[in-house]
Specification:
Elements (H helix, E strand, L loop, with lengths): L3 H20 L7 E2 L2 H8 L3 H13 L3 E4 L3 E4 L5 E2 L7 H6 L5 E12 L2 H7 L6 E11 L2 E11 L16 H8 L4 E10 L2 H7 L6 E11 L2 E11 L5 E2 L7
Parallel strand pairs: 4-11
Antiparallel strand pairs: 1-3, 2-3, 5-6, 6-7, 7-10, 8-9, 9-10
Helix pairs in contact: 1-3, 2-3
Length: 239
């Protein structure tokens, strides 16, 4: 029979571990201390610790690997070919609170390098946006986006401080084609600071272009620390 002190200790251990995960102190992939170490730290039985870890695993916050230990859950993989995935969904797959901050908004005319990204004539009106997306208190990825105002004029008045550009576009403009480009790059000084990682840390970059029947819609570049994102493509033999 459980005593009040048993229940209180269970909740304390659960709250401590969950708090470290949600705050980002223990990021995705972090190894949870072994049961024997947690039991010694909290001066309790391994059974109590095991029940806490089982509860966290059922909640999706950690995954338990036979003979390896327990680890903070990694984000769900997305289909690199068939899906346009929402970052909020990736963060929620970790059972972490999602938020974002708009860090740049500028209306301008397209330049030569923009033509390569969006296949637009020079001097076309563009909206340039930048956002930082968060998982808990920790930066999850950076977003750099161009939107063609000739194709999506409503974007000029949209309040992207309240809704992220990706979900807004999906709700406003039916897309007819999309293209992904995937790169591995070292973090520059600016991106390392924004993502709170060491400079030159390996990052996964996903670039996406989308089109509608009215023309090019958007070019977006997402930069993730290499351990916070996964891409999966499923395919069958040709012919």
């Amino acid at each position: 029979m459980k005593t009040i002190s048993d229940v209180t200790l269970h909740q304390r251990i659960l709250g401590d571990i969950k708090g470290r995960i949600v705050s980002g102190e223990w990021p995705p992939g972090h190894r949870i201390p072994f049961e024997i170490d947690l039991a010694a730290h909290y001066d309790c039985s391994r059974m109590t610790v095991n029940k806490v870890l089982t509860q966290l695993a059922k909640a999706g916050l950690i995954e338990r690997r036979k003979k390896s230990g327990s680890f903070v859950t990694q984000p769900q993989a997305q289909s690199a070919v068939l899906e346009i995935h929402d970052i909020k969904t990736e963060v929620q797959s970790l059972n972490l609170p999602y938020s974002f901050t708009l860090t740049k908004r500028q209306k301008r005319k397209s330049r030569a390098e923009d033509a390569l990204r969006l296949e637009l004539p020079a001097a076309t009106s563009l909206l340039e946006l930048a956002c930082t997306h968060f998982a808990g208190a920790r930066p999850f990825c950076l977003e750099e986006r161009l939107i063609s105002l000739s194709t999506v004029p409503g974007a000029e008045e949209a309040d992207f401080s309240q809704i992220a550009p990706g979900p807004w576009l999906l709700g406003q403009v039916p897309w007819s084609a999309a293209e992904h480009r995937i790169l591995a790059v070292p973090a520059s000084a600016g991106k390392a600071t924004a993502l709170e990682i060491p400079r030159n840390t390996a990052c996964l970059v996903v670039e996406r272009r989308t089109w509608s029947t009215g023309g090019p819609v958007t070019h977006v570049r997402f930069t993730y620390p290499g351990d916070r994102h996964a891409l999966v493509a499923r395919f069958t033999p040709a012919g």
